[in-house]
Amino acid sequence: MTARVPPKSGRESVAEIVAKDDPRLAELDKLAGLLDARFRVPVLGIRFGWDSLLGFVPGIGDAPTLAPAAWLFWRAHRMGARRRTLARMAVNTGIDTEVGGIPVIGDLFDIAIKSNRRNVDLLRRELKNSASVRAASAGRRWQAQSFAEGRAR
Description:
This protein is an all-alpha fold.
């Protein structure tokens, strides 16, 4: 009796994408780093990014950083994130934008919360969880198929 190997489709599984440190995820990580943690206060070690800096500019506030945050959200949708994860990402971005509009307090909030990093972490967890669920389900299907073929003989 030979061991059967599960069939390989032409598409990569989510587990393979996450396992290989997908460049798309690395790109989103880099963007979140620029927005939330690009600079560091030397003595204190506090990290902040363009999101916090642009928030200090009167009149424009967090509006320019909403576009990259929306792009991050769109990429998460394209990568297959569930609606629940997308909703959490939208809430993070919405709170960041609304509270970020308050002078000084909003800027401190941006420095503390880092919503873009949180969103990338949510996406990474989502992809890892869905990969493990899909791998387990594929394994069960493959075992059931092998069992059924063995009983047919």
